[in-house]
Design a protein that fits this description.
Distance between the termini: 24 Å
Number of helices: 10
Structural class: alpha/beta
Number of domains: 1
Largest sheet: 8 strands, mixed
CATH class: Alpha Beta
CATH topology: TIM Barrel
Helix content: 25-40%
């Protein structure tokens, strides 16, 4: 069970099922240390919110009953320049930014070579803290090794996404891709971040899918930044 989970979606994402308050209450029941609100950016087709929603998240208290609340976004890469779908002003109002390619946005698959160049631009932009579900290459193929190396060089965290890990048996690329990522992260002496990608409160913090494959992918607890809260908060510049 995760004590820190920064990848959760509320009803504002348009395809999730619980409110911020319901997630907070569930996190308290689970005795979690921190959660992060990370709804999809407005460029995805089923988002029901505008950029203003993300700016107003700052009105939510930082700490409620011992639970830390961080405000983020899972942004969408929207063009060949590697731009994401929120402004610099909104980025400054948030605690962290996750990003990757997503279906039903302005960015359409350009093939492995160009997709790789685009995501490298996103990583090097300095506007993104976490690459969400980077091992998914079925819809947007990329060079996993180059992407992982660039992320490590730029102190951008690579996410091990628990939702998609639970579906790894149906996607034969996931485990080999993660193994490449693990090798690179170890080489650069960096860490992964674990996120549930919860779309309801029952998925929050559930890391059972990771436990089932940790040995297979060569992941050890010292490679998981969720286990080192102060290091994580310092990296994200969260006070």
């Amino acid at each position: 069970m995760l004590k820190i989970d920064l990848h959760i979606h509320t009803v504002a994402s348009g395809h999730a099922h619980n409110t911020i308050l319901e997630y907070m209450n569930q996190a308290k029941k689970l005795k979690m240390k921190a959660i992060g609100i990370s709804d999809h950016g407005p460029n995805v087709a089923d988002a029901i919110i505008s950029e203003l929603y993300f700016r107003t998240l700052r009105q939510i208290p930082r700490k409620i009953g011992g639970l830390l609340i961080f405000k983020g976004i899972e942004a969408n890469i929207i063009n060949e320049n590697g731009d994401i779908d929120i402004s610099d002003g909104t980025i400054e109002s948030l605690d962290y930014v996750m990003a990757n390619f997503h279906k039903n946005t302005d960015y359409q698959d350009r093939g492995k070579k160009l997709n790789t160049e685009v995501i490298l631009k996103t990583i090097k932009s300095g506007k993104v803290n976490i690459i969400s579900h980077p091992f998914l290459t079925k819809s947007f193929n990329i060079d996993i090794k180059r992407m992982s190396e660039e992320a490590c060089k730029n102190n951008v965290l690579l996410e091990l996404n628990l939702y998609y890990l639970s579906k790894s048996k149906n996607n034969p690329d996931i485990i080999p891709n993660i193994k490449i990522m693990v090798d690179v992260v170890k080489q650069y002496k960096k860490k992964f971040i674990i996120g549930s990608d919860a779309h309801n409160i029952w998925e929050l913090a559930d890391d059972s899918s990771l436990k089932a494959i940790k040995k297979q992918i060569g992941l050890t607890d010292n490679l998981i930044i969720n286990n080192y809260p102060q290091e994580l908060f310092k990296l994200l510049k969260i006070s």
